[in-house]
Structures are given as structure tokens and as C-alpha cells.
Fold each of these.
Amino acid sequence: MKEPVEIIDGTTGQFVDAELFDEITVEHFLETKKLWRPLVLRASEKLRAQGRQNMLPDYTNWDWTKKEPYLHMLATKFFGITCRKALQGIEVVQTENITGDCQCRLPVQRGKSLLYVDYLQVAPWNIKVLMEPIGEKVEFRGVGSRLMEAAIRFSIEEGFKGRIGLHSLPSSEPFYRNECGMVPVMRDPRKQNLLWFEFTPDQAQAYLGGDI
Amino acid sequence: MRMSRDRSWLLKRAEQEDRHFISVGGLVSRIAAGTSGGERTRLMRAAFLRLLQLARRDKRLTTEQFAEKADIDVAELILIDNTPNYSPTPRTIYKLSSLLKVPSKTLMALAGMVDLKDAQFEEAAVKFAASSEPMDKLTSDEQKTLQGYIKFLSEREK
């Protein structure tokens, strides 16, 4: 699957053509390790030096290459966004798993199936709160929003009506709660007490601005 | 899959995204759990409980009085004390951090709610958890240990 999407050039503010795709390869993982991680570490060092530890992203220790085995799992789907020949964001979603993460926990839809967003990350050069401390502009804006949109549309395609669940990292909770309008349901002791959020079909539709 | 072509929608979403990190971490959590994360969390948790116990005794407060002073629900304080996997609410952590004058993110890490992956922080937590025994009144050594540890925690984000 390859689908054209627009994102926003962070310097000019112009809309630019990008591509949403689902054929992720090991090379994409290696690209994130080679290009993303050094920038995250550089920004983190700067934040630490400025005494802004509370702004440090939660993922400075992640190693994408360890996730490679998940490429071949059934019921796991990957989405990526490329623009100007570089990977701008990546997402892992699941329609079934053995840990119960594809089942709703929110009382109004408890027991129904949902699309589980297992992982979502945007290239560090597209994260404004990471680039500002090192005095740089973001390259592209709206990449994460496009990945969320892809998850919702895939949920609809799979018959889940836009129902989505995810475990937010601590620094990202305000985004899912306040900006996306997802419901914080519970801290999950099985997942390091990460906060579990859900979209109902109505909330997912609202996120898309009614354009389904 | 047909993606939105509505530019005003994209602009609005991009503005919201600009203000935040947006990381989702279920997969990362599973990978981290494959390391010694569980054990680390339990050690942090032990230090967190000991910190609350000693702070309460240092102020000569009952559990109820301590909850009142922190402006938290006494039932939640009891749950924290007695339920190994209980997760305090963010509000409770915030209130406790104000009372103890410790940064809330540091206290969250101590409560096992976030993982700072900081060796110095972990070592200090283990030492602190192992340094005192519950008694009616703090010994001068315990008082010194408590004050020293609170000082260490409070200075982490300065």
C-alpha cells in the first residue's frame, strides 16, 4: 500500500507531498537507528545542560533494531511516512494479540475489539519541543497526526469503527488527553504503569473532523 | 486507504502536535520488561514507601493527619502503604511532592510510575530503602538519612 498524503514544511509552512506506506523493511529500522538516535541524544544533552530534565523525551534509550522480529508477526501492521527520501515517522498497530490489548477497557465499549497502536514515533527533526532547545526548526509538521489518522482509518477498514487503544509514554499523555480527546482509562501495571487511552468511534470521527 | 485532503484539518492537528511529544510505548514497554525493569521498579517502590513512612514519622503525624496535610485521600494513602502494585494518581504524586518538596517526576520514578534509567538515582534509592527500620520514633541517624535523601531528591532537577 502506498498512499499520497500532504504534510507541512516546517520552514516555509507550505504543504508538501509525502507518502504513507506499509511495507516496512529492516532497512527502515536501521535508518531510524543511524539517523534518529544521534539527534535525540544531542537534543537530550542540550536539555540536560539547560537544566530542563523534565523535558527529556522518554525514548532516548530505545533501540529500534530490537523491534525487527515484530516485522514478521501476523496481525501486526506497520505504517511509515516518507518525504524527500527520508523516513519521517513510523507506527506499529495490531488487530489481535494474546495480551488483551486489542480489547476495549472503557466501560461504554468494554469487550469490543479495537486496533491497538503498539508503537508510534516521529523522526526527532519533526518534533518541535525537541528541536527548539538546540535552536533548530522542525523539518516537517503533522507527521504524527497523519500516523494517528492512518490508525483510525485502518481501524475502520478492519471493522473496529475507529476504536483505538494505546499506552502513552508519560511525556505524551497531555497530547492524547487534551489534543486528541482520547479517554485515559487506567494505568496498566503490565506495561510499566503506562496510561491506557481509548478512542470511541465518535471520538475517532471527531479527530478526523468528521471526514471518514 | 483514503487519507484526508483537508488542509485546514492538517494545520489544526499540526499545531496541536507541535506542543507535545506523541510517543506510544506498548512495544517499548514489552522490550524493557525483558530486562530487569520489574526488579528495578520494586526497588524504587520500596524506597518510595520508606520515604513516606519516615516523612510521616518525622512530622509525628498519623496516617490520617499526613493525608490531610498532603491534601490527599486517606484511603489512597492506605492503599499505597498496603498494596504492592497500587499506582498513586498523578494528583496524589503532585500533592506529596509539594509536601515533601521533591520534584513530582522524581517522585513518580520512585513510585515506579516512570523509569528514569539513572544508576545514581537507583543506587541512592536502594541505600535509602535499606537504611532504616520502622520504629515509633526516628533515631537521629534515621532523621539524618531522611533529610539527606530528601535533599538529594530535591536537588535533582535544579
Amino acid sequence: MDRTLSGLGRWTGLFLLLIGALLLDLSAGAVRIPLREVLHILFTSSAGDETWLFIVEKIRIPKACTAVLAGCGLSIGGLQMQTLFRNPLAEPGVLGITAGASLGVAAVMLAGGSMATLYAIKELGGGGSWLVTGAACLGAAGVMLFVLMLSRRVRDNVTMLIIGLMISSITIAVTSIWQYFSNPEEVKEYLLWTFGSLGGVSGGQLLILAVTIVAGLVVAFLSSKMLDALLLGENYARSMGLTVERARLIIICSTSLLVGSITAFCGPIGFLGIAVPHLARGAFNTANHRILIPACCVIGSILLLLCDSIAQWPGSQTVLPINIVTSLVGAPMVIFLLLRTRKLKPF
Amino acid sequence: MNSTPLLLTRSLQTGYRSQGKKIVVSGQLPELTIKAGRLICLLGPNGSGKSTLLRTLAGLQPALGGEVAVGGKTGLSSGALARQISLVLTDRIGGSNLNVSSLVALGRYPWSGWLGVLSDGDRDIIRRGIAAADIGELLERKVHTLSDGESQKVMLARALVQDTPILMLDEPTAHLDLPSRIRLMRLLHQLAREMNKGILLSTHELDLALQVADEVWLLQNVGPLHKGAPEDLVLGGVFEAAFEKEDVHFDRATGVFRIHREGSRRIRLIVTATAGGALAAFWTRRALQREGFTVAEEDSGDAIVIGEQGGRPIWVLDAGGGGRQYNSVEALIEALNHLRLE
């Protein structure tokens, strides 16, 4: 009873933090809107200033939603990778999954060929989003399947991690070759995409992103029992009746769906995938995925909302690319975790 | 006692398939059975395929030939198999944020539903497993802080919680200190008897296995698998023959391996009929063997007479004409070595 209560306390604290981060994100930006006005707009859908109403409803709310979705998706992707590979440093990026998604997007943007094609894609609107999402998902899934194929021959985690990094390098190199032979306009477009942005997603695209992320999260949550079993390693998992190959496939699908779609819409966003699962384990002091998955969602959302607020701070006209901010915030956080616990606890 | 076997093999062959080639670890094995309430020890030198056989029986790796019937059925799905066989492996679970109670609760995996939510019945079984393995005081600990002995008990509790008729353990006594090894073996023996489980464990602890096993399966690097009651295998000379190939001598009379080769110096040991005489003679013989003596039955000149004085053994060395008396093995050995120098 005692423990459930303290658990409840932690959840309440996290939700308050989440609401705080959400409001901060809605209020921060090129045009700084006071918190009271933000609340007023949220509850009454009206404001003294029509511009503020427009900004909050058409720009900031979609952006905050994107941040929440991406925060959830990337954190869960990281958690799944860390458990699957039993490696505290695993994250989609380290294993080349983000690079795979980038390759997919590059293929559409660069080899999608001429500007004309690109415009055609853009004209398609929703269809175009599906194309980019699909390409990113395919790229992510392709790399991940390849990594897993190799992982079957490798038993120890460090080797697997190095292999993942190498695959990541190869994928990035292929993407670079593509960039090298593409014309500058297309490359610029692609480069902007790699900086990452939460702002570009709205309307139909947001709906697409939400559907894929929710689907990925549902799969992740339903696979939490498998993830728990995998904590003991493949042999024990198998001895408890888990079909390891099927579990792997389900987890890959979930991670690729989550990371692929986020990378497609927001560009590669680093460090969330590695940092958040450790924060969640620290906060709830558990290895149970039924608790860790929702915890990662909440903490990931808070972190990405905060990063997004920092990217806008303080009221300047320029907005820092989100990928830069998450790295600047996430890297010290991982170092801090390493120093504090001396040994990251992977599961 | 139920006499239909929990597990039965037919013309089983173990090994690996690698790039289309079969790498045979064990030739065709005799029919192996695991029965309820029986403890079987799987013995054999390193590389004789103990782990491979265990993993094959547990369904972790496919057999090269033949079949394994569990609960009378072959080709069980992994889920069904998990309700028949639980395992304690040598895999380490270190570096984990997992605490002991969650780890043990994971044993309910094959019985719980989609999300792994536990029922009251599950919790009851978990409580019993924790009590049986005596890990009540470890529950809040993180798995990576456990010592080897504690970790082994925790993994045993997890396997008990899986609540299967068959329990298999791969070298559960490795890395344990002597008291822990003995306690674990005693516990497994009790579990077999009281919970009527069929237990198979691989081990290098031959002396413990001889004491605790209802049946021994002896694997060799070369040659067939021998099985039977440990005493029958000893009396039949199977142990001696098996280990002679490894250049190790098994002493049938004492049930232990002899480290020291037979020495060239012969000495006679004469025991007077006293209360502690036989015991003193046993340990004196050990000391003499260590010093390179062969204890001979026939008269060989030198002799040691073990007697008793005031309830304690005394040794009289009858060598080189003189007859001196010693009151400890140490003093006796020193005198013998001194004699040799002269």
C-alpha cells in the first residue's frame, strides 16, 4: 500500500511537471504570450488579441502535440532497444535506425529526382506525408532488420553496439554520397530536415503522426510482458515460453513505426531515446515495463517540451533546431547519470 | 510414486547445425527418463556435452536426431513446454535494475495473461517459491547486488514459481562456496522428495552428486553415456573406468578422487583395535599418500602402529630398528621425512 501511494505521488508530480512544461512551451516563442492568456485561450478559445489566439491554436498547440508524440515515441523506441539488446547505451540512433530513416527520406527528397517531383509530392499534401513517412519507416525497418540479423550471430552486447554504429556510419555515408551528387537546392531541403523541427507538422500530417505513434505505443504496451521476459536474456525468456524471434519482430515493428514516423516528420532527434529510459528507471526504481512504458512517455514528453521551450528562448526571432537542443541538454544528462550511478542499469 | 516418466527420450542425438553441417556433440544416447520425485545428476568432464544435452532436453536447442517427449507429448510449443520444464541457467542477470521480487514473479510468465497481471493464486505460488528457496530477506534487493550464492537461490525460486513438474539446473553449484553447495544440493534433494518434482542438474561436484543423486548420468568425452544409481556405477567400476581416461584416479573404497599418485616408498599401517583406530588410520593413510608413500598390507620393513593413549590416538614409528612415539600426524610425517634424509 505504501509503495502504491508513493508511486501515485510520483505520477502526480510528473503530470504536474508535464502540464507545466506544456504551458511553458505554449507561452514561449518569438511572440511571448503571458501564461494567463495561454490559459484563457485554452479554456475559452478566445483572447484579447486575435494574433495570440491564432498563434496558440494554429502553431503552438500543434507543435506541442508533436513534441508530446515525438517525446513518447523516441523514449519508448530507446527503452525497447535497451531491453532488446540488453545494453544501457542502445538507442535507435546508435543502432543506425535513425540513419536508416534519414536514408529513406533522402531517397525520396533527393532521388525523388527533380524539383518537379518534389513539388508534385508537396502538392499531394497528405499523400506526400505518407510517402515521406513510409520511406523513413522502410529505411528504419530495413536497417533494424539488418542489425537484428547480425545480432543473431553475435552474443555480446559491446560487439553488437559496434556493429550498429558501423551500420549507422555506412548508412550515413550512402546518404552523403547521394547528397554529393544532388543539386544544391535539394540538398538544402534535406539538410534543413536533418536539423529537426517540431513546427512543421500540422493538420493532416499531425493526424498521420498521431495515428502511427499511437499504433506504435499500443504495440509497445502490449509487448511489455515480452520485454520483461527479455530482461533475463534470451535463454530464460525462451524457457518461460517466449518465442524470441516473434517478440523481436514485434519490438522491431513497434520501434521502427515510432522512430521512423517521428524522423520522417520532425527529422532526426537525438539523445531522447537514450536518456529518458534511464530517467524513468531512476524515477520509479523498477524494471517492470508496464510501469516504465507510461513513465517514459510522460518523462519524454516533458523533456522534449522543455527542449522546445529552450529552443525558442528568450523571445528571440531565431529558433534553434530542436536536434541541437536535445543534444545539448541530453548529453550532459547522460554524463550526469553515468557519474551518479557509475554503471547504467540497462534493464 | 507415479512411475510414468515426465520426460522420455528416444534415440536422441545432440549437437549443433552450423552452415548446413552437423556438429555432433553426443552420439546416439540411450533412452533417458526423468521421473517425478527423483533427482538426477548429470556428470562429465568439460566439453563432454552436459550443457548441450540439458539445453536439448529443455527445448532451448533442437536435437540433431531422435525425439524428446515431455509429459507424453513431443513437439510441444514453447508456451506448453514452459509449463512443463523450468530452468536455472548459468547466464548472469547482472547489471539490472530488476529487484528480486519482480524477478521471481517473472516465473509466472507462462501462466499469466497478455499483460502479465498476477492473480491471487499466482501470488500464493510466488510466496511458496520464496519460502521454499528461503530468500525472504532478499526480496527488495537489486539483482546485481546479489552474491553468487544468493543469485543462485533467487533463480531457483524463480524456477519454482514457474511451477513445473520438471526442474533443470545447469551447473548450479559453480561459483558457490562449499557450505552453499551443500545447502543447495540438500534443498534440491528435499524439493524432489517433498514437491515430487523431477530434477535434473549438471554438476562437477562428484562427491556431492554421489550422496544426493537418485540417478547419475555420466557423460564422457569419448564413449557412451552411463546411467544408473550412483552406488551401482561405483560398484560396477564405471566411474573408475571413465575417469581413468582423464588420467585421474577414482578411489572406489573412499568415493573420492586421489590427487597423489602412488609413491614408491612402501610402509605398513597397523591398527590396534581401539575406538578411534579406524578413523585415525583413514586420515593417517591420507597424510602418507600426500607424502608419497604407498600403504602396503604386507610386511615391508617399516611400519606405523596406531594405538591409543588417554582417549587420543598415538603413532609409533617402527623403522630402522628404533620405535619412537608421536602424538600428532604432523610430528609423525616430520619424523618420516627426517628418516628419509638420513
